[in-house]
Design a protein that fits this description.
By secondary structure, the protein is an alpha/beta fold. The chain has twelve helices and twelve strands. Strand 11, helix 9 and strand 12 (283-284) form a beta-alpha-beta unit.
Length: 351
């Protein structure tokens, strides 16, 4: 943990997250990681502001707010603005997924959050393109990070070892598990190609669809929700991660795969392109189960592409492209960007 020096200004920072630890989702993971990266500042995480500690003696007033999600944190954003003498100084609104690519298009509360913020933060390189042109000047990209895991040796598909892919994400429409279900059915006759699916059924109907797919397709397993460390081990040991989302602000799981030495097969949406790059070879079109199935066959060596002869060569090609992106997601880079952000915001709040 960073220790204060005689010249360190320790700020009082509040992170507003629409979900807390019980949800175990991307917003909560971002909030708790940022609390650690912002040491030695005094940081707390709340679901709504003001909370019991805000402006309550003997506590000192908060100086900086980082609000995750424009719509779902809009009440806290508006309350912060009302208490600032010159508008919402010291406030950054962090645009995650559904707010950046859906809510801000039509929701007045989300739009008001954008207008009130001193800074807007997006989590991948394509994020600014989704914002109105007049807001881009106060927008910055901060890539998220996680600890790197060592790449593990995986059985060669050339030696007739099965290909093992994994998809990670709670079962809800935005993550498009339907695309994976359909791809699994298309691959039902491929005995050397296995798919594990990790995530809780936030939509019961999608849970039923996962069970039906598992019953019909012996090469597909739905593992339900798993602890974080177990999920990372699944990603680390898989030949490939599948990420089929329709809407993403910057998915943790893509970053975790890259930093585990596991290549990604991803839907071609801005949230994924902003993390993997425009020239990445592992994209399929959103909702295209046949395209995903074709990529999985290629990883198994059952389909040629780009002049690459084997599944191992194809996986190595994707892995090399992912490795080039890995430095974007280092904890040091995220820490430096966050520390500069809160320092800038605190200066805006000075009289």
């Amino acid at each position: 943990m960073n220790q204060p020096t005689p010249h360190t200004v320790v700020l009082r920072i509040v992170i507003v997250s629409p979900t807390l630890a019980d949800a175990n989702n991307g917003n909560w993971q971002t909030a708790q990681r940022w609390r650690a990266l912002l040491a030695p500042h005094h940081v707390r995480i709340v679901k709504q502001w003001p909370d019991a500690e805000a402006h309550t003696p003997p506590h000192l007033p908060d100086q900086v707010m980082l609000a995750l999600h424009a719509r779902r944190s809009s009440v806290s954003v508006a309350a912060w603005a009302e208490r600032q003498p010159a508008g919402a100084q010291g406030l950054a609104v962090v645009l995650t997924g559904t707010d950046l690519y859906r809510d801000i298009q039509f929701d007045p509360a989300a739009q008001q959050s954008l207008a009130l913020a001193s800074r807007l933060v997006v989590l991948q390189a394509c994020g600014p393109d989704a914002l109105p042109a007049d807001l881009r000047a106060k927008t910055q990209v901060i890539f998220q990070s996680c600890a790197a895991l060592p790449a593990v040796s995986k059985p060669s598909t050339q030696a007739q070892a099965p290909l093992r892919a994994v998809m990670v994400g709670h079962l809800r429409d935005e993550k498009s598990p339907q695309t994976l279900f359909a791809a699994a059915r298309l691959l039902e006759g491929e005995p050397q190609l296995f798919i594990d699916h990790i995530g809780e059924a936030l939509d019961p109907a999608l849970g039923e669809a996962a069970l039906a797919t598992a019953a019909a397709c012996p090469n597909y397993r739905w593992l339900g929700g798993q602890p974080y460390n177990a999920t990372r081990r699944h990603i680390q040991r898989a030949h490939a991660l599948v990420h089929a989302s329709l809407i993403e602000g910057g998915a943790h799981v893509v970053m975790e795969a890259i930093l585990s030495g596991t290549p990604v097969l991803a839907s071609r949406i801005p949230g994924n392109v902003g993390m993997l790059g425009t020239d990445y070879a592992g994209y399929f079109e959103p909702g295209d189960a046949e395209g995903l199935a074709q990529l999985l066959r290629r990883c198994r060596g059952l389909d040629a592409g780009l002049g690459i002869r084997s599944g191992d060569d194809w996986l190595a090609h994707l892995g090399a492209q992912c490795a080039l992106r890995a430095p974007l997601f280092s904890p040091d880079a995220e820490r430096m960007a966050l520390q500069q952000l809160v320092l800038d915001l605190s200066r805006m709040n000075q009289p």
